[in-house]
Write a structure and sequence with these properties.
The structure holds two protein chains of two kinds. By secondary structure, chain A is an all-alpha fold. Chain A has a domain at about 60-180: Cytochrome Bc1 Complex, Chain D, domain 2 (Orthogonal Bundle). Chain A is built from five helices and two strands. A two-stranded parallel sheet of chain A has the order 1-2. In chain A, helix 2 packs across helix 5. The longest helix of chain A is centred in the N-terminal third of the chain and has 20 residues, at about 1-20. Chain B folds into four domains: about 15-45; about 50-85 and about 100-135; about 145-255, Immunoglobulin-like, CATH 2.60.40.420; about 270-355, Sandwich (Immunoglobulin-like), CATH 2.60.40.420. Chain B has eight helices and twelve strands. Chain B has helices spanning about 1-10, 20-35, 50-80, 100-135, 250-260, 270-280, 320-330, 345-355, and strands at about 145-150, 155-160, 170, 175, 180-190, 195, 205, 210-215, 220-230, 240-245, 310, 315. The radius of gyration of chain B is 29 Å and the shape is elongated. Classes of the chains: A mainly alpha, B alpha+beta.
């Protein structure tokens, strides 16, 4: 009986600490420097390389672990009318973004370059029209559509009318490389 | 704590006032705060139209009735305290067999205030209902119809016309003619907002996917401030707007001017400013009529220099504030949707010169 009392006395501070840790999941930083602005230089659209083939340098997109940045990406996806062609990820005029097929690469910097440079057959070049940090937010959100970002950070529900399952409940789809438009 | 609680009983309630001056200053401050709400550009107690006047009368009725109730309750409480059983020297123990005559008297003492409460509340309800009916009976013949669309965190304002080219789009500033009814069609683009210009009318919610209408009239000219009255996110507190009531001829002159497309800039600096506007991130979100910039997600800037404020009635519309807002709006209103724009000084000055000329 005595030990039970002692244990319950210990449980209170532990519970308080656990609860407090839940108070702030992450900080919203409104003036955050973008992950990288030189991504374009390391993008390869071809498997052919001069000399010995080497792996492409990986550029991490920290926004993929940030719920606020992902939610902002989701807002910008409608804001800049990505919905107009790609619809809610299912594709229409433009290719779908919620499946495992990646024509121009699935890495964050590939998506960054696709948005900034544009791609043949209809993808406009947004370079200079969208600030770099917003392109990274969009890139993070696009990857969340096929479940490639941590579930805890992906948007858990839609702000407006629900037209599809929220990104947090999408199963991860390991990317397939196709290298050509469908 | 317990010492503090017991003090009034130990020393008696009527303590000599520690400092008469202190009390008077506090009272003076309270009075000045209270009266500062009575006039001004954002006050329900300074009505500028019939709708707000009805609401004001109801407000005063409720204040006086509530004040009378508070006074009666306070007096009754003081009487009960000073004439309690102990004060009358009676035994503190409850009676085992209550005297039926005294019991009937006590029941009456409870029943009369309950009856008074019911009658008072019912009276206030009737007053509230009558006010609501009066508000709804405003004639909307010959009304100016305006679409107001709530965005996080600004107001889009469109003057409805059957001919699309005559439609005027502006932001955060609603010009209305004095003496003519105004019908607002309220919509929201994201979350629920609430339109509240207390000098002119009550509140009305802007609900996504559901249009609400709202009508009011201004009796006198003036500039009145309004505010979003439904919590809508980070910058809810700074989601203000101005209603500018002006004589009809002045209003229609303003409307005519708003319909005009500003002429293209004719000096090199402002021409460069326009290039900066079109080539940078501005043009994807903002519209300037007569240029390829046709973004619909941010305030229309066609006549930006003619407005009194920027950033949803947050800052006076001066070149300095415009510069600060363009370069780093996140410092001014954290979380707002405008990205920071690190322009070179030359580009920024040219852009400011261009925007400053969009009257």
């Amino acid at each position: 009986m005595e030990t039970v009392h002692k244990l319950s006395a210990l449980a209170y501070p532990v519970a308080v600490v656990l609860l407090l840790s839940g108070c702030e999941r992450e900080e919203r930083r409104f003036r955050e420097p973008p992950p990288a602005t030189t991504a374009i230089e390391s993008i390869r659209l071809s498997d052919l390389q001069p000399g010995v083939p080497t792996p492409a340098p990986a550029i991490a997109n920290p926004y993929e672990e940030n719920a606020y940045a992902l939610a902002e990406g989701k807002r910008l996806y409608s804001w800049y009318n990505c919905v107009g062609c790609h619809f809610q990820g299912g594709g229409g005029i433009g290719p779908p973004l919620m499946d495992d097929q990646w024509i121009y690469g699935s890495e964050p910097q590939n998506i960054f370059a696709t948005i900034v440079q544009g791609r043949p057959n209809g993808m406009p070049a947004f370079g200079g029209k969208i600030p770099a940090y917003q392109v990274w937010q969009l890139a993070a959100y696009v990857r969340s559509m096929s479940g490639l970002v941590p579930k805890a950070a992906a948007p858990g529900r839609n702000d407006g009318m629900s037209v599809k399952k929220p990104e947090a409940s999408v199963k991860g789809q390991p990317p397939k490389k196709t290298g050509r438009p469908p | 704590m317990s010492g503090f609680r017991q003090r009034p009983f130990e020393k008696g309630i009527a303590q000599p006032s520690r400092s008469c001056f202190e009390g008077r200053t506090a009272g003076g401050i309270a009075l000045s705060i209270a009266s500062s709400g009575c006039s001004g550009i954002q006050s329900a107690l300074d009505p500028a139209g019939p709708q707000a006047a009805h609401i004001e009368s109801l407000w005063w009725l409720m204040v006086w009735v509530s004040a009378a109730v508070l006074l009666l309750v306070t007096l009754a409480t003081l009487y009960a305290v000073s004439h309690g059983r102990q004060a009358r020297g009676l035994d503190a123990e409850p009676e085992a067999t209550p005297d039926p005559v005294a019991e009937r008297k006590r029941a009456l003492i409870v029943a009369i205030p309950v009856g008074m409460t019911i009658v008072t509340l019912f009276g206030l309800q009737v007053a509230s209902f009558t006010t609501d009916r009066t508000l709804a009976s405003l004639s909307t013949d010959n009304a100016v119809v305006i679409d107001v669309i709530g965005h996080q965190w600004w107001w889009e304002v469109q003057y409805v016309e059957t001919t699309p080219s005559l439609r005027v789009t502006t932001a955060n500033e609603i010009h209305i003619p004095v003496g003519q009814p105004v019908v607002l069609r309220l919509q929201s683009n994201d979350v629920i907002h609430s339109f509240w210009a207390p000098n002119l009318a009550g509140k009305k919610d802007l609900i996504p996917g559901h249009e609400t209408t709202f009508s009011f009239k201004a009796d006198r000219a003036g500039v009145f401030r309004g505010q979003c009255a439904e919590y809508c996110g980070y910058q809810h507190a700074n989601m203000g707007f101005l209603v500018i009531a002006e004589p009809p001829e002045q209003f229609y002159a303003w409307l005519k001017k708003q319909r005009a497309i500003p002429p293209p800039p004719d000096d090199p600096i402002r021409q460069h400013g326009q290039e900066v506007f079109l080539a940078s991130t501005c043009s994807l979100c903002h519209t300037i009529q007569g240029t390829p910039a046709a973004g619909k997600v941010a305030p229309d800037l066609t006549h930006i220099a003619g407005r009194q404020t920027i950033a949803a009635a947050t800052l006076p519309n001066t070149p300095g504030n415009r510069a600060g807002w363009i370069v780093d709006s996140q410092r001014i209103k954290p979380g707002n949707r405008m990205p920071p724009n690190p322009l070179t000084p030359q580009d920024l000055q040219a852009l400011l010169a261009y925007l400053g000329d969009l009257q």
